[in-house]
Amino acid sequence: MNNPPLLVFPKPRSVAYRKDRGGGNASHYPSRERQAERLAPKFKRLQEALQSKSARSQMDMDGANLEQVLVLETIGGVDAFIGAVREVKGLEWLGEMEVNDISPDEDFYHSEENPEKLLRGRLFLVMSDQLALKQMLSLWKHWKKSGKDGLEHSFTKFCWMGYL
Hints:
By secondary structure, the protein is of the alpha+beta class. The chain has a domain at 25-54 and 66-101 and 118-155. Helix content is 33%, strand content 19%. The chain is built from three helices and three strands. The protein has helices at 32-59, 79-87, 130-146, and strands at 67-74, 91-102, 119-129. It has a three-stranded antiparallel β-sheet. Helix 1 (32-59) packs antiparallel against helix 3 (130-146). The two termini are 34 Å apart. 18% of the residues are buried.
């Protein structure tokens, strides 16, 4: 059996949340169609990893609850995103990190007047079990097909507009 490496995390500590330091400052985001095109390969890899992990876990008889760390990068406000993460059972918040000096591209940039201005963002680390990953994939497929229409209000924050 191939065991993955052990990750050692620092001891958890409480940190005051500062709203004024949220995500980035991009004012131009890609359309839903373009964002679906950008993110489709990443979600495909996530689905393949989930299927692979599921197949392996069926062979494991130790009964361990398999969990993975999911890393999401955002540009834009983070309050709604944090709320949405809390709504998915099986996602456990591990931490976040500011990312400065993100180079703009044709999809994410500050403004037409200043398209070269560097952006700010955040990396979010969440522990995820397989059920939560399945729910994320389901939300992704729904959003890709229909946008926010038909999503429960708490999940509309996963609109993938500011996610890289």
